[in-house]
Amino acid sequence: MMRLTALVACFVALLGFAVAAAQGALIQYHANMDGPSESPTNNSPGVGTTSVDYDDVAHTLHVHVVFSGLTGTTTASHIHAPTAVALTGTAGVATTTPTFAGFPLGVSSGTYDNTLDLTQSSSYNPSYVSANGGTPASAEAALTSAIAAGKSYLNVHSSTFGGGEIRGFLVPVPEPGTGLVVCAFVGAMGLRRRGVRV
Predict the structure, then answer these.
(1) Are strands 74-80 and 47-55 parallel, antiparallel or unpaired?
(2) Global pTM?
(3) Which of 79, 78, 128 is nearest to 105 (CA)?
(4) What structural domains and CATH numbers belong to the chain?
(5) Which residue of 14, 33, 36, 53 pairs with 48 in a disulfide if CB–CB is 3.0 to 4.6 A?
(6) What integer is the mean pLDDT of 53-70?
(7) Under 8 Å CB-to-CB from 128, ≥6 apart: which residues?
(8) What does the alpha-carbon distance between residue 41 and residue 5 come to, in Å, rounded to a whole number?
């Protein structure tokens, strides 16, 4: 009986964790970047990953990029939005131009980690702000909508491929609580099969 009580308590705790995670302000996106994903496509051996975390309470966009194997050296990196169709096409630069502040330039591999304050005009391409309502708030709404719709990509430009050597469309990362609830449910079903009432 004590074991059953502990399992039920564990299930309730996991469920509570999942609900708390679902109500959080952090929305996470991810992309795998490569040359075949560029437009036009290329056969660069370069690869990369990026995670972009949007905090809709703090109005920040945390950008983390890891890349390697570029055929040229980096000249710029930024987020483009919106494409006309999700997960395909091209779009203008939405974030800081000519590149993210502090992005490693002149290298073929590297890491970037920075947080953009989306309440500041300096976090955007000025033409993106003008085309999307004229304020940082309207630009934030447009950018985050494009990211959520799969109409935004991050790419890394190089001396070999001025239009972009590697890119990847940002897609949502599944809620971490979802897996916990599934595990708890599967565990509970396993107990039922053994004849233990839950």
Answers:
(1) unpaired
(2) 0.78
(3) 78
(4) 27-173 (2.60.40)
(5) 33
(6) 98
(7) 81, 92, 93, 94, 95, 139, 142, 143
(8) 57
